[in-house]
Design brief:
single chain, about 650 residues, mainly beta, Jelly Rolls, Immunoglobulin-like, 6 domains, seven-stranded mixed β-sheet, 50 strands, about 0% helix, elongated
Length: about 650
Amino acid sequence: MRSKLFFLAICIAFSLQTHAQTCNGSLGDPVIKQNFGSGTNPGLQLASFITNMTYTTNNCPNDGEYTISNSLVGAGNCHPPTWYNVPADHTGNPNGYMMIINASYQPNIFFTQSAKGLCANTTYEFSAYILNLCIPSLITASYTQPNITFSIQTTTGQPLASSTTGTIPPSSYNQGPLWRQYTTYFTTPANGTDVLVEMTNNAPGGNGNDFILDDITFRACGPVIQAGFSSATGPISKKICAGSNANYTLKAQVIGDVNPIYQWQSNYSGNGWVDMAGKTAPSLDISFVNAVAGSYQYRLGVANGSGITDAGCRVYAPPLTVTVNPLPVVPPFPPQAFCEGSTLTLTASGGASYTWSGPNMAPTTQNPLVITNVTQANAGTYTVVALSNSGCPAAPVQASVTVVPKIVASVSTNSVTVCAGEPAQLNASGGTYYKWTPSTGLDNDAIPNPVATPLQTTKYTVNVSNGGCSNNSNSVTVTVNQIPIANAGNDITLFEGESATLNGTVKGDNTSYSWSPATFLSDPTSLTPVTTPTENTTYTLTAVSQTCGTSTSSIFVKVYKKIKVPNTFSPNNDGVNDYWDIHALSTYPQCSVLIYTRWGQQVYQSIGYTKPWDGIYNSAPLPPGTYYYIIDLKNNTPKLAGWVLIVR
């Protein structure tokens, strides 16, 4: 038999007249909870034994109607414009249903809630949340406010408790719709565990008296239970870091009960309360080995006798909590490289505070860690230890730092001289990456030692770097001396006694020149000397470079002898002037000689003139007289024509 004194020690046992009543002892978990469920609008109609009001799917019920909904769009829509907008149920669940009520014209019992299987001879708290829908600024003196009586009785009609809310006031307009909790207490009889709660609306409807009902609960009410770490009045919470070890003793005491029965429960990270097997003493020892992060709660449930096995008969001490705080996690650092003279910056994350240590520096809480104008002395391993807000340290994390030396670009020489077409070897050093500009004439512009073969003098600049660090440059000028090119010009043709100018040209750097032979030349050191040769002559122009060799070019000067044609000869075999002897005509081996009579008869023809004409035609001497000649020297000069007299 459960002791009635157990539950009467602290709580008010029977009927309460106002909603201000409270349980001054400890409360159990809700054993019955009517929250009308959840889902999309509208909710299902309630059973007829629960309410005698008329169900409507309209979100804005009229007098004598109710609906089940997860929200209410009031102002300007419901009985405009006197109702609040209520976007969610009492708990704020956007899908949670609530019962929206527009009171009947006459006071009546509008809601009945049964509670079955309660513990006998046990004091319970009954509570419900109610919201007055009417907007204060729009309410007139004639408006009726809700006033509800809770009547609790056994299923056989035995009264157990009754209380009245009194007038439920409207919410402040600036505050918006306000839920109010109303409670009453009752004790179940020794021979019964089922009860009924009837809710009566004491005010008439028709003008006001509109409200919402939600979250109806029954909870056991018992004696005061004190609990804490190490003693019943000790602290109610402890904090440790993940991975650590700890031992605690939880102690509790019940005030005002003479024969309590105990049962400890645990709740890990909000997964729900679970009885701890065999833990039925007022104290509890707990241990943490390599603790895992989370919230660990413990509470003592108290009942009399066999009622301890029935959760609905228990009341509970306030929970004691061990919070195992997680260790901060600092992301690892990839290898870091900084240029000499730049700023080293290392930024840790994942914690609330940090301590850095490293080469040649005192530990510091600076984060990010900043070191300006770094040198080789700053290279090495840096370590950071992070602490969480709760003071839990992370495992040390290291960052490997290298300092890349400053770049100094060097070249083997700043000047190279070559002849055109010859290669020049360039050489640079001081870094890892190289880039030569311009690339013209280079076999590779991205190596330290390219071969340059420029066509003309070129200044090559090399940019040297070390993987993104500062860079530096230097240059090499390749001077290209052009190879000498001599050009003596075109061959010349002239007649004996005539003069001509040789038109020579010379290209190249640092070049001297001269003609050979010097015979018949006005100045053999001039590119354009005047020649007056008496015979055929080949002249050679020689150009000599100080560094890039020699070039020669020759021309041929053809000298034609002067032709002197006699106009008389006497072929009479006296040994004197027997032949038409034309001086120097034999030097024109391709010449053509034609002789005609005055009547145009050809009497002589020859190619070349190796044998002078003797005045014979067809093996017979021609008669004395005047004959006419045409001489073609075949050297692109005008033909010679005239007459010759044969005298006998």
